[in-house]
Amino acid sequence: MKEVRVNRFPFQTLEARKRVGGFRKIILVGSGKGGVGKSFVACAIALLLSEKGYRTGILDIDIHGASVPNYLEVKPPLRSTKNGLAPKVTNGLKVMSVALLAGDNPVPMRGSEKQDLITQFLALTDWGRLDYLIVDLPPSTGDELFSALDLFAGKSSLVLVTTPSRNAIGVVSRLRRLAETEGVPVEGIVLNMAYAQVGKRNRTFPFGRIDGRVLERALDSKMIAEIPLEPKVNQGGLRAVLKGRNATSAAFRSLLERLTVTERTTG
Amino acid sequence: MNRMWDFTFSARMDVPLQSLIYGPTANSWLRMHELSVAQSITDFALSETQKQNARRVTEISVDVGELMQVDTKVLLDALNMLMSGTKLKGCKVRVRVAAASFSCRRCLSSWGMAEAKSQLGAVPEDLLVKEPDSDELPLHFLPYLYPAFIHCPRCGSSDIAVTEGEDVQIRKMVLE
To answer: B133 in contact with A at a CB cutoff of 8 Å?
Structure first.
């Protein structure tokens, strides 16, 4: 007879790893900087992937500033299934966010508890099999980011989101360097709020203007999309903008072509 | 205070478990979360048995954090079902409900689940998770979400920590 003392039963981590086994590809959308439109970009990519028929989910791990449910117009309550918590589904896209459980309550958490929460969250969500999981990262290069890098190791790539502002690019470069040291491939740079269209021919540059080649050198990555400011997102919603014939929709659709090119070439 | 039950699948005991539960309850297989907790315990115990090259398992001791509001009877039923037909069949399962304990980083006071319960009663209806025959608090699924709903009952601060009773732990396994 032998007695085994279990120091740590990694209940949630084991479950989370099982879930990750059901995903073909994971795209982390981050910048390290707040207010550059990470959630906007993440939601747009997820919606268009779903529209193209890919089985897609989006996981919002911005614990302190979750905004994915607002962009995608989904609300609590959640329900449970025999396999865990059922994500909200909108146009075939599976959506999960802390805000769907905490509502408008602030979630003041520290350090490792955030990592435990993210692991629990992934472990408990009944994603089923997915072609793509899009992960909306929070600002900063702290606990949440390391949770994501650890949980999704080997399956994830990173989309860097920035604005033309020098401050933003400086912060994003830190995330770029971290991706390098942690071995996460970078898909490329999305330059958000790149310009605002004025009439049919003129553009203004409210957040500054940067040459694409300079940006690529600064972040050591290819620029894969240039997204204009689109005031209609706040009026009619993201979904309506993506359905319309406009520069934002066209830029995101072109971005999608670049992100899914591997799918087509590998068949 | 921690409460403990012994349960042997071959000689099942009836225990007054309802006193444990402070939320809406449902003693049925429809409580899905208990099933997934039981699945994880079973998977881990089987992999450990293989790792240790053991013939069978005679005893498993599990701590279930009070914050998770797990229905212990449903958990034991689920374990019974999942362990039958495996090397875990017939093993004695000891389940202990570990009392939840909180502390405030601002005023340094500490309190237990009884005081937290009154705050959890104020969770809005639309944040309750719909199960097939009941509604559950979000903490049943995500215990680490507690700072969204529980505050210091003395000073009102949200800067609190759970010091015990928030998770599931396997404490001990006896192998042959």
So the answer is: no
